[in-house]
Amino acid sequence: MRKFAETYASRTGTYFCVEPGTTAVVLEGLAKHKDELGSPLCPCRYYEDKAAEVASAYWNCPCVPMRERQECHCMLFLPEDNPFAGQSQTISMDTIHREIQQV
Predict the structure, then answer these.
(1) How deeply is 93 buried, as exposed, middle or buried, from its count of CB atoms within 10 A (0-12, 13-18, 19+)?
(2) Does domain 2-101 have CATH number 3.90.460.10?
(3) What is the rounded CA–CA span in Å between residue 10 and residue 77?
(4) Which of 34, 57, 64, 101 is the most exposed place for a label (fewest CB within 10 A)?
(5) Residue 80: what pLDDT?
(6) Torsion angle defined by CA atoms of residues 29, 2, 100 and 72, in that order, rounded to the nearest 10 degrees
């Protein structure tokens, strides 16, 4: 998921959150959903039926709001003018592991 997110951020001109913990937690959630459900379902929402949501594909990352309007509710992909946008489109595995351990 990290490589996907880095590539997608670069391709769309978006940036990760200035707070690396936010990026790490979202990437972890996406990876867990990909492993468990077969698709990177947005981890920032509640679903009555995750399998049905995966099938609809609306909230599979990148979700429809992100693809259509560059609106990422998870704050993973942020436009440059967003006050929470950092300056990075990359994150190391060491940073992800360190941030996840602090949660």
Answers:
(1) exposed
(2) yes
(3) 10
(4) 101
(5) 96
(6) -50
